[in-house]
Amino acid sequence: MTNNLFLVIIIGMIIENYKSSYLASLEVAERIAFHIRKTQLENKQCVLGLATGATPINVYQELVRMYKRENLSFENVHTFNLDEYCGLRKTHMESYYYFMFEHLFSYIDIPHKNIHIPDGMLHESDIHNYCLDYESQISELGGIDIQILGIGRNGHLGFNEPNCDINSITRKTKLAKSTRIDATPSFGKLSCVPKYALTMGMQTILNAKTIYFMAFGESKKHIVETAFKDEITIEVPASYLQTHPNCYICLDQYTNLIEQ
Ligand code: PGA
User: Fold this and answer.
1) Which of 87, 203, 204, 53 has its CA nearest to residue 134?
2) Nearest CA to 203 among 235, 160, 145?
């Protein structure tokens, strides 16, 4: 892989510049698979934090390929998804529940009880306790081993939108207008895009032992530079990753942070 990769270490962050998003995705999938196999040899559980959106699709595709062709089992894997829209049923094609089964869970041997995706259909009065329970379930399994992340064009991680607290935990949150505008093509019109979501908090994300952050394509170039070349700021939640001791920033030829 070294031919495809240019490495830079900035404080705790490890910037990895790949020649393409596909090569970056293969490498991230390979490292996840390595960790799954390692925990199996040690008779331990493996806890993954998962993301939705276009960015991780090739990682999931590669994990499915390894399940089918390379005997990679997910029997000891527990997953916690970052977020879910409020008001969408699991059967809604834009729900993240639907996405995860469409791209990963339907094709692998993960026990259904090990899958955790925030429930977007809760009654308002149940949300607070549900979110605390989501946190407890992560803690009881010993925390997230590997968290994968994409980034919104406004710098959000999960649905931790600009001006969110670095100490936030899983909660209901209001979506930024820019996030709703970006989601509009999938929903048809802006008024159909949910206004609220449940999201893991920044603290939940930053507690993960290892983070693989991925940002691909020209449209992410500007926000990647702002998040990692500039100072940490509440206006760009992704910049909080600068505080993490073991965070890999996986970039492609468009988001590349080094002039070559
Ligand atoms: P994307 O979304 O992977 O579809 O670009 C990322 C995000 O908005 O967090």
Assistant:
1) 204
2) 160
Shortest-distance Cα residue to atom 7 of ligand 1? 152
Residue 255 has pLDDT above 90, yes or no: yes
CB of 25 closer than 6 angstroms to any ligand 1 atom: no
3-state SS track over 208-228: CCEEEEEECCHHHHHHHHHHH
Query: What separation in angstroms does the CA of 26 have from each of 3, 37, 56, 93, 214?
Result: 14, 16, 10, 26, 12
User: Does 1 score more than 50 pLDDT?
Assistant: no
Dump pLDDT digits (tens) for 240-253: 999 999 999 999 99
| Contacts of 219-223 spanning 24+ positions with Cβ under 8 A | 219/153, 220/151, 220/153, 220/254, 220/255, 221/254, 221/255, 223/151, 223/152, 223/153, 223/154, 223/155
Q: Residue 239 has what pLDDT? A: 97
Per-residue pLDDT at 231 exceeds 80: yes
Atom of ligand 1 nearest to the CA of 216: 5
Report residue 17 as tokens. Answer: 């510049």
Could you tell me if the CB of 152 is within 6 A of ligand 1?
yes
Cα end-to-end span (Å), the chain: 18
Q: Using a 6 Å cutoff on CB, does residue 53 contact ligand 1?
A: yes
Residue written as tokens 């916690």? 80
CB atoms inside a 10 Å sphere around CB 177: 13
Residues 6 or more apart from 256 whose CB is under 8 A from it? 6, 17
77 CA from centroid of ligand 1 (Å): 24
- Which tens digits make up the pLDDT trace of 103-157? 999 999 999 999 999 999 999 999 999 999 999 999 999 999 999 999 999 999 9
Going by pLDDT thresholds of 50, 70 and 90, the confidence category of residue 258 is confident
